[in-house]
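Example record

The entry below shows one chain as it appears in the dataset: sequence first, then structure tokens.
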Amino acid sequence: MRYRFPNPVSIAYYEANAQGFFDGTVDLDLSPLHTRFLERVPAGGHILDAGCGSGRDARAFVERGYQVTAFDAAPALAELASAHCGLPVQVLRLQEMDWQARFDGIWACASLLHLSLLELPDVLRRLAVALKPGGVLFTSFKHGQGEREHGGRRFTDLDETDLAKLLQTAPCFTLLETWITVDRRPERADDRWFNLLLNV
């Protein structure tokens, strides 16, 4: 059976734990993922950081010469991210996005995983509409199957089989590549991340 947890569960977690989450993630080195994504984004292009968390990645993209728009659903985390990356960070939920053909690339690192399987097709459609033709999306999920709630957050895990099913419901995207990485935090070294690159 698949369970649908209300997305505000995760927002409330990040609102209540914003500083701790910021401190634990802001210094993680994701440059190998950045490089793989940016290889497909035009130099100086416009990137949307969708669910920017600490603002770590938005700052890295700005420092590499890209135009960046960033948002997060948790107001306290958005405030911390803005101070870190030097950009105005909007308070917005993924389900509320309504940009059209605005971005060359969208970075949604560990953000779509808080949506239910029922919500994902609509959000993927919104992401596709927000991209310029040929634009690329990076996103990541915990590698696995099913929906769960853990420690005040809800998660949808994804593997190759469920990804294929998901993309059938969101034919706006073409899958470019997938790969698996380990978590960069030593205390979570057993976690496996399922990384995706897609384009429209």
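Notes for this example: The chain has seven helices and nine strands. The longest helix spans residues 75-85.
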